[in-house]
Structure formats: C-alpha cells, structure tokens
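I'll show an entry:

:::
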Amino acid sequence: MKKIQDCHRIVIKVGTSTLAHPTGMLNIRRVEELVKVLADLKNSGKEIILVSSGSIGVGMGKMGLKERPKDTPSKQACAAVGQCELMYIYDKLFSEYNHVVSQVLLTRDIVEDTQRKENVINTFERLLQMNVIPIVNENDTVSVEEIEFGDNDTLSAIVGRLTHADLLIILTDIDGLYDKNPHEFSDAKLIREVTSITPEIRALAEGKGSTLGTGGMITKIAAAEMAGNAGFSTVIMNGSKAESMYDLFEGTPVGTLFLNGR
C-alpha cells in the first residue's frame, strides 16, 4: 500500500456542513482556509481534485430560505443559484494563489455510459496535465432520481476510481469514525485505522447527516469501501481543521484511515 506521504493524486471531498453555517450561508473562513491548504498542497507537487458539495445549501442561503426544500424543482433551483456562487468563490480564492480551477458537473448516467465515461476520464486527465484543479459536483440542476448519485461521498469515490487516485480524503463535521456516538458518550474513542469494513464497522456508522447535507457516516463508509475495492485508501477527517492535512501528509495520524487492503 502506498504511504500517505507518497500519494500524488488526491481527491478531496468537502461536505455542506464544512462549507456552510447552519443558516446555509457560506462559511467564509472555512472556505478560505480550505483553499489555502489545497493551493499549498498543489504547490508541493500534488495533483488536487476537489469534490465539493454545497450548491443546494449555499443556494438556500443566497435566496433566504430557512429549510432545505423537499420538492425536486425547488432543490434544483437552489442548486442552480448555489453552484454559481460556489464556483465564483472558488475561482476568486484559488486565483489569489495563481491556480486555475474548472467546473465538472456529473450525473450517474454519464459515468455508466462507456463512451461518455471515457470522455470524462480524458477530460480529467487533460485538466490535470494542464495544471488545473477540477472542482466536481453532482449536476443537481438536472439530476433526477434515475440518474443521481445520491450523495457526494459516493461521487468522490467514483471520481477517484475514474482518475486512478492515490488517496481519497473526506472532510466532514466530525474527527472520524468512533467506537460509539461521541455526541452521546464522553468516553467515545476515535478509531485511527480500519483494515476491513465489517458489519460491525457499518453498525458504528448509523445515523443521518446534517440538516443541510444529504449524507452521514454510513455513506462515507460506503465510499471508503468503494475506494478500497478500486485500490486506494480513504481518510475521513474533520473539515473544520483544514490545516490538519499538512499533518496527514507529514506522517501524523489524522482522522480515520481506511486501508485499501492491497
């Protein structure tokens, strides 16, 4: 297994709970810190692919909505507004560090069609060759149940597989996988390393995500399993501490590492 320090092509997934305040409005400090760290990691020679949630949540905040819409057209309207806002912010912030970003919006039918999947793979490769940071999201504006990924944890693992990534980092609102619910038990212990995803591990991951997002720990475990089957490891870590990624690549244990078993 490739050591974390030696990983070159990195997929980083950031969730809505990291990007936005509970109000739905963008958490500017968090986003600025995230971009700074990712720009620095890229400066160090790493290839960065960012899978970013948040279009619906940020769109909600932009339009002054207090709750996540339940009907599909309203969700898609929020996504259309929020995606513009997200890309504007990412482009502005990464530009300050002289990095160029691109937008890649995907739906499941694209990656399940042989020809279109090949086109996506070729586009990713060329963007990385041209020193561009791809910023990926599900195309929520047009996605319906038949063609949606359902959550960006799954999407990030699929992107990792398409791009032959060395590592997937999932940034969330918790430090990693615990042996019991840390919100309920003060003696909960962080599990530093998972060598095999067993029914017991899945049982630890039960529960829903934040009010703004769609995923929870169970979707992250599923993504880690998908990544492991594709040959690369996953780290689940706290997105509010973006600078901890420096520690990770310097060999300090951060979050929970899911080994690929190869």
Observations:
- The chain has a mean pLDDT of 88.
- The first helix runs from residue 16 to 19.
- The radius of gyration is 17 Å.
